[in-house]
Amino acid sequence: MSVKLVDIESIGSYFESLSDPRHSRNRKHLLEDIIVISVCGMICGSDGPTAIHRWAKERADWLSQFLSLPNGIPLRDCIRRLMMAFRLEAFQKCFQSWVSPQRTTTRQKSALDRRK
Question: Crossing angle of helices 49-58/31-43, nearest 10°?
């Protein structure tokens, strides 16, 4: 089985069309950072904001190689509020545009979860 590495730095570019639903005074974390952390966490089996936060905290050093993280890893409530505020259809469209070129075969596996 071949391992396909995912270009973490490119994930955010697929979500640029999403508008930031947060009020400007509530933007402690970059939108792209929260999205990339959420997408990577979900791909690695995280089933909600708490698990995504835990996954990201365990990989903070690795994530900081690719993301700005000016205020560290966003808390679970920050992740939850942002995910609830997005229009589901718009997020799905962005996610599908990222996933489509990634899956060349069903046997390839992302190496995201192996990085620490």
Answer: 100
* Pairwise CA distance, residues 4 & 7, whole Å: 10
Does pTM surpass 0.90?
no
Structure tokens at 56: 């990201």
Burial of 65 (0-12, 13-18, 19+ CB in 10 A): exposed
Q: Which range (6-10, 28-32, 71-75, 88-92) has the least confidence? A: 6-10
- Contacts for 83 with CB less than 8 Å, ≥ 6 apart: 38, 49
Sign (positive/negative) of CA torsion 52, 57, 61, 66?
positive
Question: Does position 116 have pLDDT exceeding 60, yes or no?
Answer: no
